[in-house]
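Cont'd.
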Amino acid sequence: MSDNGNKQGMPKGPRRGGHGGPGMGPVEKPKDFKGSLKRLVRYLSGHKVSLSIVMVTTVLSTVFTIFAPKVLGWATTSLSETIFARAMGNVQAAIDFSYIGKVLLFLLGLYVLSALFQYIQQYVMAGVSQKVVYDMRKQIDEKLDRLPLKYYDGRTHGEILSRVTNDVETISSTLQQGLSQMISAIATLVGILIMMLSISPLLTLIALVILPLSAIVVSLVVSKSQKYFMGQQRHLGEANGHIEEMYTGHTVIKAYGLETKSIDEFQGINEKLYTTSWKSQFISGIMMPLMNFIGNLGFVGVCVIGCIRVVNGRMVLGDVQAFIQYVRNFTQPIVQTAQIANVIQSTIAAAERVFEVLDEQEEAPDSETTAVLENPQGNIRFEHVDFGYSDDDILIRDMNIEARKGQTIAIVGPTGAGKTTLVNLIMRFYEIQGGRILVDNVDIRTMTRNDLRTLFGMVLQDTWLFSGTVEENIAYGCEGATHDDVVKAAKAAFADHFIRTLPQGYNTVLNEEASNISQGQKQLLTIARAILADPPMLILDEATSNVDTRTEAHIQKAMDRLMEGRTSFVIAHRLSTIRDADLILVMNHGTVIEQGNHTELMKQGGFYADLYNSQFTTRDGEEIA
Amino acid sequence: MTKLFRYLKKYWLAIALAIAFVVIQCWGQLTLPDLMSDIVNGIPAASMSNDLSELYRTGGKMLAVSGVIAVVTILATLFAARTAAGFAKDLRQALFEKVENYSLHEFDTIGTASLITRTTNDVMQLQQLVVMGMRMMMMAPIMCIWGIIKAIESAPQLTWILAVIIAALLVVVWIVASKTIPVFQILQKKLDRLNLVMREKLTGIRVIRAFNKQSYEKKRFDESNQDLTDTAVRVNRTVAILMPAVMIGMNLATVAIMWFGSKGIDTMGLELGTLMAFVQYAMQVMFAIIACAMIFVMLPRALASAKRVNEVLDMETEIKDPDVKSDAEMKRGFVEFKNVSFQYPGAEEPTLRDISFRTEPGQVTAIIGGTGSGKSTILNLILRFYDVTQGQVSVNGVDVRQLSQECLRAQISYVPQKQILFSGTVSDNIRNGQLDATEEEIRHAAVVAQADGFISEMENGYASPIAQGGTNVSGGQRQRLAVARALVRKAPVYLFDDTFSALDFKTESKLRAALFEETKESAVIIVGQRVSSIMNADQILVLDDGCVVGLGTHKELMDTCEVYREIVESQLSQDEIA
C-alpha cells in the first residue's frame, strides 16, 4: 500500500474485518441509539422499493439455502432405503435413479436460485448504500458552507475530514453488508428452527441446548476482548504518537543527544503494547474454536441420537443428514448476530458524529432586503463595535475606526494580539455583538455576504492554493478571465518570470501541498490572484516568513503596486509601511488599544512608541542613530 | 520477507508447537467425518442386532475428538498471538532504534511521513501476516492435501469429481479475484481524491469565502463525490458476484458427488456413510482452497510492507563515529570552517562552496542570505548532521569527524528553525536540553528566554502540559521555549536558526539583550532573515548561492557588499539604514 492511503492520520489499529472478524474491535457506544437509528433509517426511506427487493431476496435466498439440506436428505433416504433393503437380503433392490435425479435437479435449482437472489440483493444494496452515503457527503459539504468560521476555529481539519470520510465509510459498509447479514441471520435462525422442528422435535431440543451455551460464550468472549482491544488501542495510540513525535523532532533528538532517552521510553510503551496486543488477539481468536466445539457437541448428539432413531425405525437417514447440516449451520448466525450488534453500535456512533455536523448552528442568513453598492468607493467605518469570539467574552468594546478611500491602515501589535480579528470582522467571517460596520455608508449586514466579499481582495500569510494549474489558481478570483488577463496579472505581481521557468509554465499543476513551488512564489501567486480580481479594498498580511530576501523584495513591490488607489488594511511588519500609513491601529490582547498616525502615536509615548523604539535598540540598549 | 524471518527465530519453539497443534487440528477435523461415516455405516448392522453400544462408542469418540480440536486450536491461537505480537514488538523496537540513529540524510531519503508509516502501519500489517501465517497459511495446505488424500482413500471411484471441482473452484476464484482487486485500487484512488478536495476546502475556507467560490467548490466536491459513488457502486456490484459464485461452486460439487456417488453405490460397492464422509472431505478441501485464495490476496500487501520495513533496516547511516575519538573539551567556544564545500547526496550543484570563517568565545556571528543560499546547511555541518564534501569543520579546535557524535553535540546548544517541542510538561521540555538540570536552572533559562512570563500565566506554571508538537502554545512561545531549552545546556557553542522570526520586535530585542549576557564565553552563530535582528553582530557572513560574498560588520558590509545592501534596502526605509 502506498503512503497515500494513510493521509487521514494515524491508523486506528486493526481495521474492521481484520483478524478476529468484524465487530471484534473496540466498540464505541452511541449517545442516543434510538434517535440516531431512526434518523439514519430516514435516509433509507427514499429507497423503499429497493429495500423491499433486498428484504424479499434475502429472505428467499436464505429460505432456499435452508431448504436445501432437507431436499438433499430425500436423496439420501432413498439411497439408504435401497441399501438397507440390500443389507436385509433383498438383492434385487434397485436404486431409484430417476427419483434421485429429479431430487438432485430440484436441489440444483434451489442452489442456483438462492445464489441468484443473493446476488440481486447485493447488487441492489450496492446502489442504495452508495446513494445514501453520497447524499450524506453532499449534505455535509453543503452544511460546511453554511457554518460560520467560528466552527472551524475550534476543530482540526483532520477531525472534520474524518467525519466526511471515515464515518461515512463506516455507514456505507454497514449498509452494504450489515443490513442483509442481519436479515439473513435472523431468517436463518428462524428458518433452521422451523426445519428442525418439522424433522424432529426431540433432536431440536438437543440442538437447542447449545443455544444458551453459545450465547454465554459469545458474550463472555466479546466483553473480555472489548477490554483488551481498548487497551491495545490505547497503547497503539501511545506508540504511534511517540513514533510520530520523535521522528518529526529528529533534529532536536540528535542535537541534544536524546536518542537513548527516547528509545527507553519507547521500549516501555512497546512492552505494554505487546501484552495487550497478544491478549486481545488471543481472546478474539478463541471465539471460533469454542463455538465450533459447542457446535460439535450438538452435532455429535444429533448424530448419535438421530442414528439410534433410525435404527429404531423412527426416522429416515436423510432426515438425520439434513439435521446434521442444520445443527452445523446453527451456531454461525449466533456469532454473526453478536458481531452485527457491535457493528451497528459503532455505525450509529459514526452516524451521530455526522449528524452532529449537520446540526451545528449555521451562519445568520443574508438579509432579505439587500443593499447593493453600484460604484464602491472603499470608505469603511466602524461605529461603536463590540465583539467577542463568544458572547460572554467580549474582547472589543465600542471600537470606532474610520478609513477613507485609498487610505492605508496599518495594523500592528505583538504576536497573538488578535490582528486577524479585524480582518474577520470586515469580511463578516464573524458577527459583531454590537454597533455596526459600514462600507460606503451601508451596513455590511444589509449586504449579501457574497457582495460584501467581492469588494475585498485578500493576501494572507497563509497562502492557499488548490491542486490545479497555476493559471486556474490565479484566475480563481475572477471567473471568465482570459489567458491574457492572467498573464497580465502575473506580470504585475512579478510572478510571470518564475512561472515561465516552471516545467509547464502556466499549465504547471500545483501538487497537493503546492510543494513544487516555494513559499515566496506561492505568495506571488496569491498577489496575482488579488490583482486579477481587482477589488476596491484590500486586506494584506505583510509577514513573509520563510521567504528569501530577493523574493521578498518582489513581494513587497507587488504589494505596493496592488495597494495603489485601494483602501488597504495591512497587517504590517515593515517599518516603512507603518510609518507611511494613514492610520495605525495598535492591537494588544485582542483589542485596539491605540490609533492614529505615526507622529501622533509617537507623541503619545504609549504602547506604540515603546514597541517602535524597542526594535532599534542594540544589545547594550542604546539607539542607533 | 525472508530477511524478516530472523526476527521469528527466537520464537522457534512456539512456532513448532503451533505447527504441531495445527496438524492435530487437521487430523481432528478430518477424523470427524470418518467417525460419522462409521455411525451411518453401522446402522444396518445395529438395527439387525439391536446393539447400540457401538453407536455410543463412536459418538463418544467424536466428542473426544471435538474436545481435542478445541483445545489444540486454542493453544495454536495462543502461540500464534504471542509469536506475532512478540515479532511485532521486536521489529518495531529494531526499527525505532535504527531510525533514531539515522542521520538527516536518511530521513531525507525516505521521508519522515513514510518512516512513521513504516514503523507503525507496516509493522501492524506484518503482525497480521504472522498470525494469519501461523493459523491459516499452515492449515490450508495441510488440510487441502490431507483432505484430498482421505477423500481418495475413502472413495477412489470419485476422485475425478474432486479434481473437476477443485479445478472449477480455482477458476471461479481466480476470475473474481482478478476482476475485483484492480477495481479496489481504483476505489482507493477516488477516495483519496475526495479527501484531497475536502482537505483543500477546509484549509482554504477563508479564501473560498473571500472570493465567493462556494458554488465552484461545491461543484468540485460533488464531481468527485459522484465519481466515487459511481465507482463504489461498480466495485460493490462486481464483488457481489463473489459469494454467490463460490456458493454455487460448492453446492454444485455436493450435488455432483451425490449423483455420481449413488452410481458408485449401485455398481461399485460404495457405502453410504463413506459417501457422506466424502462430501465432508470435499467441503474441507474447498474451504481450504478458498482460504489459500484469501492468503494470496493478502500476501502482496504484506510483502510490500516487508519490503518497506527492510529498506529501513538495511539502510546504513552515513555518519559514523570515529574509531579513535578525540576530546573536545580542551578549548571552549571556537568554531572554524576551513574551505568547506558541501553537496547534498544526489544534488547537481554544491550547496556550499569554499566557506571559511572562524568565531571565538563571546563573539556573535550572523549568517544572512536568500533561501537556498545554504545558511541552515552551515549549522547542519557544525552539528555533523551531514559530512562536508571538502574542507574541514572544527569545533573547539577539533575536526568534528574526530569526535563522537555524542561528545560533539554535547558542545552545542541548537535552536532549530522549526520549533519542535515534545509532549510533556513545560519543565520537561526545557530539561531536554540538559537532562540533569535543576528546577532553578530551568527557571533561569526560561527567564532569559523571556518565557517565564507566559509560563507563569499558564495554569500549572512549569508543570503545565505541552501538547504533542507544542500545538497548545503559540509560535512565539514555542520559539522562546526552544531557546530556553538551548540555554539550559550552557554549551560552548550556540546555534540559532532563524529563531526569532515569530517574535515581535519588542520581545525579540529583550530576548537578545538577555541572551548575550549568558553567552559571553561561548561562540554564537545566528542565522537570520531580519536585518534588524542581525545588524549588531560582531561579524556578518553574507551568503549568496552557497558562496560567501561578504564577511564583516554591518557598517563594513554596507560599504563593500552589494548583496547585503540590497537585502537591507528591501527591509528598512532609507532613513533607518543610516
